[in-house]
Amino acid sequence: MKEFNEAEIKKDLKIDAHALGIPIGAAEIFIDRTLKDAKKTLKNKSIITEKDLERAITKELKKYHADLAYVYQNRDTII
Amino acid sequence: MLILAFLQLAPGVFALTYHYALGKYSKNKASSLTLFFIIGVEVISTCLFLSTFFLISIIFFAGFKPETSVTTWILAGILIALGFLAFFHYFRPGSGTKLFIPAKYTKGLKYSAKTIKTKSDAFVLGVLSSVSEFVYTFPLFIVVSAEIMYLGLQDIPVNIFALLFVLAPLLPLFVIHYKFQAGYSLADIIKSRNKNKFFTRFILGLNYLIIAIIILCFRTIIL
Q1: Nearest to A78 among B15, B101, B185 (CB)
Q2: Does B19 touch chain A (CB under 8 A)?
């Protein structure tokens, strides 16, 4: 079992956002909203897999920035 | 050369390194860090190639020239196996361009790409990612070294071939570097890698098979 580390996800997303040229302030706002909404979506689930978490975050991120959502979704499939 | 330019591990790690460097540092620092990654790849590629060339030249000058030897068949066999391996098992099944290398090792490379801080980190990461492809490059180095030895005997400027050969792995890295400089993002690079996945496998597989067939048909290799 793995613990869901919100701070780490937030930090990674901020780095990705900065690399994609998204202004830090805007990125911080929508990343916070994304994580909040993703948590809401997963609230009723008793077991949450890493894939569930990834799907929920990707789905929410897509609303704000499609490229950031794509990078987040594919971050483990590059090499 | 085409094979070296089509191998995917070093370009993948390079793209990740550039992306994370851009995420943490300024554009200039990211550019200079990744330049050291490129230098690392070039230095180790040259060292590995020259070491192989040195070994082959020792064998060559020892007078071992069985043109229809077992070694030629073994080498051709390895190249054919690599051709099939590249076509069927270069990428892991499923979406994305995950490569068939140990998961722990991949994790390590990703972690290093993410936590890169200094130029020496970038240099070492370039070296590591290039060494990881040695399984695919070593048989090629042997073939090319032997061919260069053979051509050298006929007074052809072999240094140019050798130089082109050691510069080939840099081509994809410079393309990615240029893409990042031109404003493309990691998302664009992932998309283009996914789009050309089959083409990469096809070119790699086909090239290994062609080299194997050339060796078997012409037996010009002198080992």
Answers
A1: B15
A2: yes
pLDDT, one tens digit per residue, over A27-53 is: 999 999 999 998 888 888 888 888 888
pTM of the complete model: 0.89
- Map B34-103 to HEC letters: HHHHHHHHHHHHHHHHHHHHHHHHHHHHCCCCCCCCHHHHHHHHHHHHHHHHHHHHCECCCCCCCECCCH
Contact (CB<8Å) B98/A78: yes
Question: How many angstroms separate the CA atoms of A18 and B174, rounded?
Answer: 22
Q: Has residue A35 been placed in a domain?
A: yes
Q: Is residue A29 part of a domain?
A: yes
Pick the residue of B9, B16, B22, B133 with the most A CBs within 10 A to test the interface with A by mutation.
Answer: B22
Chain B closest-CA separation from residue A77 CA (Å): 5
Residue A49 lies in a domain: yes
Domains: count for chain A: 1
Residue A20 is assigned to a structural domain of this protein: yes
Using pLDDT thresholds of 50, 70 and 90, give the confidence band for residue B147. Answer: confident
